[in-house]
Design brief:
The chain crosses the membrane at residues 29-51. By secondary structure, the protein is mainly alpha-helical. It has helices spanning 2-26, 29-55.
Length: 56
């Protein structure tokens, strides 16, 4: 069941990376910062959750 949580975290991290790319076009530094923090945090937890589930 935790693998679903890991996949959801991964989807949020991917959307945050898309947001970073879009905000680079508008040069919105504040939004880039929050999107980067979100991508790092959710990406870390997605990878950690998936590794934890696959590792046993």
């Amino acid at each position: 069941m935790h693998i679903v949580l890991g996949v959801l975290f991964l989807l949020v991290a991917i959307l945050a990376v898309v947001s970073i790319i879009r905000q680079l076009k508008y040069k919105n530094i504040f939004a880039i910062g929050f999107s980067a923090i979100t991508a790092l945090a959710f990406g870390f937890f997605a990878v950690a959750t998936i590794i934890s589930e696959l590792g046993g």
